[in-house]
Amino acid sequence: MTTKTVFFAEDEPLARDVLRDAIYAHPGLRLVGEAADGASALARIGALRPDVVFMDIQMPEMTGLEVLRQLDYLPQIVFTTAYDHYAVAAFELHAVDYLLKPFTRARFADSVARLLDGARSERAAVDDALVRASAGPAPLDRILVRDRGRIFPLAAHEIEYMKADSKYTVITARGQHFLVRIGMSELEAQLDPRRFIRVHRSALVNLDFVESMRADDQSQLQIFMRDGTCIGANREASRLLREMAI
User: Fold this and answer.
1) How far apart are CA 153 and CA 188, in angstroms?
2) Domain-by-domain residue ranges, the chain?
């Protein structure tokens, strides 16, 4: 099997760990370096000249797109990002693929297969990846979370509710709170909308863990979770929840 040298740039620690583990686990890839910001990525990629670069788009100092435009050679590029609206710009830079985070290990393996398959034309690979980017990511079954030095998978159906905290999201599950460095909107986009409801800008609940709901003086619903937490729903979410009631 052909082995390709790999570099990746990613500013989020959890996403960096996931990507590093996936690269190490693949026999066709050899990791030679990584960076957590655009400026470092540009310098290190220029020095190491890897065959493949997995590149986040939104990073401190320089975006991934800016990094690629300043390189003096063209490695094989796979963009890793939570935002599908960068797809056209990515493929203008001859990206081989475009992974929407959080991606599955199977989706990563499919991307690597395209990197290693020299028989496929660049145009065919780009066309396929554009279709995948426009279709959006697969439903999220689980997320990797940290707890006291451990990393473990948390099934999506175990999530009771989430609250936004700046760039982070606090996930409540199994009677614990887990802080993950990914925006709540990014997670929401891959959760089952029949189960998970955004009740206001900073909170999302799993209906399976709702004990009851009651309207307040402004006719907006107060949602009481099984753990005793009360979360207020905004006007639009209150209307939606009323419409869902039989």
Assistant:
1) 17
2) 4-135, 142-244
pTM of the model: 0.50
Decide whether 4-135 matches 142-244 in CATH topology.
no
User: For residue 4, what pLDDT is reported?
Assistant: 92
CATH homologous superfamily for the domain 4-135: Response regulator (3.40.50.2300)
Confidence (pLDDT) at 37: 94
In angstroms, the CA 72 to CA 61 distance is 19
Residue type, 7: F
Question: Which residues are CB-contacts of 100 (< 8 A; sequence separation ≥ 6)?
Answer: 81, 82, 84, 133, 136, 137
Q: What is the token pair recorded at 119?
A: 């028989």
Total residue length of the chain: 246
- The strand pair at 221-225 and 150-155 is best described as unpaired
- Domain range 142-244, CATH class: mainly beta
Q: Residues 6 or more apart from 202 whose CB is under 8 A from it? A: 163, 164, 184
Tell me the per-residue pLDDT of 86-99, one tens digit each, with 9 for 90 and over.
444 555 556 778 78
* Strand partners of residue 164: 169
Q: In this structure, are residues 230 and 237 in contact, taking their beta carbons and an 8 Å threshold? A: no
- For residue range 148-201, list pLDDT tens digits in order: 767 778 888 999 999 987 667 899 999 999 887 777 877 787 788 889 999 998
- For 121, phi and psi rounded to 5 degrees? -75, 150
Q: Quote the longest CA-to-CA distance of the chain.
A: 67
